[in-house]
Amino acid sequence: MKSPSVVDLFCGCGGMSWGLQKAGFHILAGVDNWQPALKTFQHNHVNAATIFADLSVLSPAQLAKQLSLAAGDLDCIIGGPPCQGFSKNVPATYRFLKDPRNQLFRRYLEFVAYLRPKIVIMENVAEIYKAYNGTVRNEISELLTNLGYRVNIQVILASDYGVPQNRRRCLFLASRTDIPLLTFPEPTFASLPIHDLFRTLKQHRSAWSAISDLPILENGEGFDPMPYSLPPENDFQMDMRKDSTIIFDHVTRRLNEKQLSRVMSLQAGQGLKDLPDNLRPKSGYSGAYGRLDYEGPAPTITRWVFHPGSGRYCHPQNARLITIREAARLQSFSDDFQFTGTYIQKAHQIGNAVPPVLMQVVGSNVKFCLGIPEAPE
Q: Are 37 and 344 in contact, with CB atoms under 8 Å apart?
């Protein structure tokens, strides 16, 4: 049976595509205007067209012609239009509805209107659900409904689906197939395990359970690439390593003396408020200089994962920042996914991405909505 086709708009490095590719989808193309991320997309999606373009300028007709797509040919369009104007990381006084960064979702829907894919998946920050009293959410739903789609919108927590990270995002799912509604997958994980007559939920995967098999490094250590030195300890680690024989980007960024002193003074799970007075900065994020703990998922991995003062990005066991590979693991990129660009560009690519494991899970529901039976395991 032919694999369902996908076009990824605002693709970044390709987290959404990578998850769907792992689920058996055929990625036709990725479109983005940030070259470093697009090079990563191209490196990992070798059979897809890689299109460097500003989607506010590229017309839907141009894209359709370039990909030889007629209206209705495409199975699935996916994408995460830039969301800085909605994000809680932007102070409230700087958020306003007509912010140009808030308008690209409309451009995304223009491509939907022209290409008429069977399935639409759009991802954005959780805040878009309630932003401006639900105005944006309702507009998106109304536009899709007017195009003949049945729409399902939900704020989901990535850790509920096996991602070792508490990343909350809003997903818009829409379909126009004969199957009534594209539904969200049921969570398979929870903060505490549940075993009853109605469901079985595993405990959320911890950050430590995602990275504990990677080679032990101290501040400033590592080389690229390097071999595995420890066996996998759980099913997540085995899955991350399944298609890889070597590790890329497992190199620690050297902290300066003051940064290192701060991290060394903290235990796993501690952060800025636990620093001694002589080491505590005058101001900073609540999670600054935070070390991951051993029990729970990581907090949201952002594009600032390269800086210890920007969040809980320090290793729980060793006094150092987590590596690019460890950040990728927490975002659920498998080890065979290779990033290109500078260290900071790689950090930005990871922080901006959608967790591939989440998309892999959603892919099963998309296949059902497309009438494609799941292959037996």
A: no
Q: Give the whole-number percent of the chain exceeding pLDDT 90.
A: 85
Q: How many domains does the structure of the chain reveal?
A: 1
How large is the average pLDDT for residues 346-355?
97
| CATH for 176 | 3.40.50.150
Q: Report the chain's mean pLDDT, rounded to a whole number.
A: 92
230 lies in some domain: no
Inside any domain, residue 103: yes
| Measured distance between the N- and C-terminal CA atoms of the chain, rounded to whole angstroms | 16
* Distance of alpha carbon 30 from alpha carbon 52, whole angstroms: 9
- Could you tell me whether strands 150-157 and 49-52 are parallel, antiparallel, or unpaired per DSSP bridges? unpaired
Sign (positive or negative) of CA dihedral 255, 260, 264, 269: negative
Q: What is the pLDDT of residues 293-328, one digit of tens each?
A: 999 999 999 999 999 999 999 999 999 999 999 999
DSSP string, 320-370: SBPPHHHHHHHTT--TT----S-HHHHHHHHHHSPPHHHHHHHHHHHHHHT
Kindly list the catalytic residues: 83
pLDDT, mean of residues 335-355: 97
- Residue 254 domain flag: no
200 within domain boundaries: no
Distance CA 199, CA 183 (A): 18
User: Rounded to whole angstroms, how far apart are CA atoms 6 and 118?
Assistant: 10
Predicted pLDDT at 100: 56
Backbone angles phi, psi at 78, to 5 degrees: -130, 160
Task: Give Cα 6 distance to the centre of its chain.
Answer: 17
Domain carrying residue 157: 5-189+355-369
Whether 124 contacts 169, CB under 8 Å: yes
In this structure, what token pair is assigned to residue 135?
A: 């105005």
Q: Quickly state the pLDDT bin for 218 (edges 50, 70, 90).
A: very high
